[in-house]
Amino acid sequence: MLFNTVLTITTFLIMEFISWFTHKYIMHGPLWNLHLDHHQVDKKKKLQKNDYFFLIFAIPSIMAIILGSMNSNYLLYIGIGIALYGFAYFIVHEIIIHQRIKIFRNSKSRYIRAIKRAHKVHHKNIDKEDGESFGMLLVPLKYFK
Fold it and tell me: What is d(CA 81, CA 10) in angstroms, rounded to the nearest whole number?
């Protein structure tokens, strides 16, 4: 039980680094064509090509949960960790930062304000190269000032 909990939490934490790496080197690299519309937002469109990344990240989670459930093994907890990170991503990125659902509008939390600042800096650059601040949950200290 303790091992499963630690594995789920560890997977969740590792996902921040996988997300950062994927954002910097894949989304701003070979899959820029899917991520581009996220940097050049058309307010009339409800969905973006960038939203396909939800599926790209969900597939390994679903597969791990299914395989782990069928075999009663550790893959279940890795899948749960990935799914929890996906849920956190949805809350932080889609609701808190981009306000796709209009709640958490005026948070006084220093952490939430730092996340929003870092993301705003990331979106200042609308091009594929020369971006900064690719993470989601871990924010450099300079954005807390």
Answer: 8
Distances (CA, A) of 141 to 17, 18, 40, 107, 144: 17, 20, 27, 18, 5
Report the b/e string of 29-53 with b at 16+ CB within 10 A.
Answer: eebeebbbebbeeeeeeeebebeeb
Are 29 and 21 a contacting pair, CB within 8 Å?
no
Full-prediction pTM beyond 0.90? no
For 11, other C-beta atoms within 10 Å of its C-beta total: 22
Q: Which residues lie below 8 Å from residue 108, measured CB to CB, with a gap of 6+?
A: none
In this predicted model, what pLDDT tens digit does every residue of 60-90 receive, in sequence order? 999 999 999 999 899 999 999 999 999 999 9
How do residues 104-139 score in pLDDT, each as one tens digit? Answer: 677 888 998 999 899 888 888 777 787 788 888 998
The phi, psi pair for 38, rounded to 5°, reads -75, -25
Do 83 and 9 touch, CB atoms closer than 8 A? no
Measured CA to CA, the distance from residue 82 to residue 88 in angstroms comes to 10
Would you call 14 helix, strand, or coil by DSSP?
Answer: helix
